[in-house]
């Protein structure tokens, strides 16, 4: 167990739910982990919440829709806990959570301060006429 887990406090904004890669070359498998924001991708996580296999597995042959399936295993109770504590998922993990039905499609809710504000219409610019100034002297 790493030293920061034992007694150190981790702030809400410093914890992320992200993917940590493992597996062989050209056949990746990812752990869905909870780890501090400043740590490396494959460093020791606080907790492993699930796994994700991005390589598609052929679907069952008996169905009309023969789609390839990507395997996702997720501990929803622990993911809910970490989201409740304030851990923020990365874009790919949020996409996985939405596909699993764990997050709403409109997550995160738009903040009222980040919404686009319409700028006021500016009237046409009026140019003042100036007298032409010679910047060079004629030789005599």
From TrEMBL:
Q: What one GO molecular function would you report for this record? A: structural constituent of ribosome
> What Pfam families does the annotation carry?
Ribosomal_S16
GO cellular component, alphabetical, reads: mitochondrial small ribosomal subunit
GO BP terms in the entry: mitochondrial translation
Q: Which InterPro entries match?
A: Ribosomal_bS16 (IPR000307), Ribosomal_bS16_CS (IPR020592)
Q: Where are the transmembrane segments?
A: none
List the protein's name: MRPS16
The protein's organism comes out as: [Candida] subhashii
The organism's lineage is: Eukaryota, Fungi, Dikarya, Ascomycota, Saccharomycotina
């Amino acid at each position: 167990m790493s030293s920061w887990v034992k007694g150190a406090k981790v702030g809400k904004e410093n914890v992320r739910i992200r993917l940590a890669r493992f597996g062989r070359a050209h056949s990746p498998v990812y752990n869905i982990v909870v780890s501090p924001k400043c740590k490396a991708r494959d460093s020791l996580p606080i907790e492993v919440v699930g796994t994700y296999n991005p390589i598609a597995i052929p679907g069952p042959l008996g169905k009309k829709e023969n789609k390839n399936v990507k395997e996702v295993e997720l501990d929803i109770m622990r993911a809910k806990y970490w989201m409740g504590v304030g851990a923020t998922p990365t874009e790919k993990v949020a996409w996985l959570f939405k596909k699993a039905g764990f997050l709403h499609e409109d997550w995160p809710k738009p903040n009222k301060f980040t919404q686009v504000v319409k700028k006021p219409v500016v009237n046409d610019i009026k140019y003042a006429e100036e007298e032409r100034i010679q910047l060079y002297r004629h030789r005599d």
